[in-house]
From TrEMBL:
This is DNA-binding transcriptional MocR family regulator. GO terms for molecular function: DNA binding; DNA-binding transcription factor activity; pyridoxal phosphate binding. Gene3D superfamilies: Type I PLP-dependent aspartate aminotransferase-like (Major domain) (3.40.640.10), Winged helix-like DNA-binding domain superfamily/Winged helix DNA-binding domain (1.10.10.10). Residues 16-84 form the HTH gntR-type domain. The keyword Cell cycle does not apply. PANTHER family: HTH-TYPE TRANSCRIPTIONAL REGULATORY PROTEIN GABR, TRANSCRIPTIONAL REGULATORY PROTEIN. The keyword Hydrolase does not apply. CDD domains: AAT_like, WHTH_GntR. The lineage of its organism: Bacteria, Bacillati, Actinomycetota, Actinomycetes, Pseudonocardiales. InterPro entries: Aminotransferase_I/II_large, HTH_trans_reg/aminotransferase, PyrdxlP-dep_Trfase, PyrdxlP-dep_Trfase_major, Tscrpt_reg_HTH_GntR, WH-like_DNA-bd_sf, WH_DNA-bd_sf. Pfam families: Aminotran_1_2, GntR. Keywords: DNA-binding, Pyridoxal phosphate, Transcription, Transcription regulation. It comes from Halosaccharopolyspora lacisalsi.
């Protein structure tokens, strides 16, 4: 273990005295090797005195560094540089499906119904697909199809293809977000997005949303301070199932354009199975928007393909950085996707899936609402359900053989929201089973309400 650096030496390297400034400077020192693994850090009190700031500020900086895996704290024994800095784990993502696969009817996973995925056409012949290292990363015919699909919405300056929507969001955020940068997200939102932002050391700011999308007044307040990215899901927002309206997109784009350093990153994770029309801030602020379109839920998760459209400078920087690693997504899979986008049987299969998912989702929401249970789910195949006590609801549903995703990991500050929620994935749930599911949830709600009433007496 290296000797403990003096608080004065560390303070001299920290120019910004805010919590994020302290965390960013210490993180840079760790990355540069100036603070090696196992090094004991000065106490919070000593470093605060050397910086001329409060212990609360240093404590917050230490919490930031712990969350991204840069340091480890051992209570009164002190804080140390982690042996493997930067090994933060996706804690929220791992909390979504606690009993997945062990219950009779698992509605926690958020995956499409395999029976509704289109049948794969024959793989393209080897001679039809470029195989060289210097060939374009995106097949020209696939790019043409992507641009045609987006044309009613907007004309992206540049297009590329990566390995799924989370890969796209990951690559965009790693380029756009630096340690301590502010990122605005919908609250609640998809837990892996929050995990990713935590690993990046971003300052995450949650904003509210209604059935039309992010609330304009919330975004306006959030963008009063310099912000790197607004991260949103334009259709079938996970977990609430709501979709942004065209009118709301225009309002949000106008607010975005008044914040010159901010880029919107849109994750259209449902793609072709969405019932809502295409919508994007790119239509009104194309120079400030990167739009991601996934094909996993519509054409098959194992295709691992998503398209990114946006300003030339941003997309080309993503492509250039990727050239130092995987360089391109399999052109064989790109060829397969291009075939599926034009094959009439595949097109019809995706249309049937979209209609079927809508019927299943609507049946569950309607059955729940008839029983007095508040639930939303206007698009995609997730239903967001309000429950009086989240943990008790999950246990009671499990006793009925039903698996659901807990609501807490979807919130920016788990435990801060009042009441509770569970997310149900209705993708593979037959319509005739909706009343049975709704009865189980309503029963759980009544039992908890009765129990609380008796305890209150």
């Amino acid at each position: 273990m290296d000797p403990e650096p003096s608080a004065a030496v560390m303070a001299a390297a920290i120019t910004e005295r805010s919590a994020t400034g302290v965390a960013a400077a210490v993180n840079r020192m760790i990355r540069a090797g100036e603070l090696t693994p196992g090094t004991r850090l000065p106490t919070v009190r000593k470093l605060a005195e050397a910086l001329g700031t409060s212990p609360t500020t240093v404590n917050e900086a230490w919490r930031w560094l712990s969350r991204i895996g840069a340091i480890r704290t051992e209570g009164r024994n002190g804080s140390f540089v982690a042996e493997q800095p930067g090994t933060a784990r996706p804690s929220r993502f791992w909390r979504l499906a606690g009993d997945a696969g062990r219950l009779e009817r698992d509605l926690s996973t958020g995956v499409p119904d395999p029976e509704l995925l289109p049948r794969l056409p024959a793989l393209p012949g080897r001679g039809e697909t470029p195989l060289g290292y210097l060939d374009p990363p995106v097949l020209p015919e696939l790019e043409t199809l992507l641009r045609e699909a987006w044309r009613p919405l907007w004309e992206p300056e540049a297009v590329t293809v990566v390995d799924g929507s989370l890969d796209a969001v990951d690559r965009l955020l790693r380029h756009l977000v630096h340690f301590g940068d502010r990122v605005v997200v919908e609250n609640p939102t998809f837990p892996p997005l929050l995990d990713l932002l935590e690993v990046l050391g971003a300052t995450v700011v949650g904003v509210g949303a209604d059935e039309s999308g992010i609330l304009p007044e919330d975004l306006h307040r959030a963008l009063h301070r310099r912000t790197a990215v607004v991260l949103l899901q334009p259709r079938a927002q996970n977990p609430t199932g709501t979709s942004m309206t065209t009118e709301r997109a225009q309002e949000l784009a106008e607010i975005l354009r008044r914040s010159p350093d901010t880029i919107a990153v849109e994750d259209d994770h449902v793609g072709a199975i969405a019932t809502a029309e295409q919508v994007s801030l790119a239509r009104y602020a194309p120079e400030r928007t990167a739009h991601v379109r996934s094909f996993s839920k519509s054409h098959g998760p194992d295709l691992r393909l998503a398209a990114v459209g946006g300003p030339t400078e941003l997309v080309e920087q993503l492509v250039a950085r990727r050239s130092l690693g995987p360089a391109w997504s399999s052109r064989l899979l790109q060829r397969l996707l291009a075939t599926m986008l034009t094959d009439q049987e595949c097109v019809a299969a995706v249309e049937r899936a979209r209609t079927t998912y809508a019927h299943r989702r609507a049946a569950v929401v309607e059955a729940l609402n008839r029983r007095g249970v508040a639930a939303t789910g206007e698009d995609g195949f997730n239903v967001w359900v309000e429950v009086p006590e989240e943990r008790d609801s999950l246990v009671l549903l499990a006793s009925h053989g039903i698996g659901a995703a807990p609501g807490q990991p979807f919130f920016l500050a788990p435990g801060a929201n009042t009441g509770g929620h569970v997310r149900l994935t209705t993708a593979a749930l037959r319509t005739e089973h909706a009343p049975w599911l709704a009865d189980s949830i309503a029963e759980a709600t009544r039992v908890q309400g009765h129990y609380r009433h008796r305890v209150g007496r």
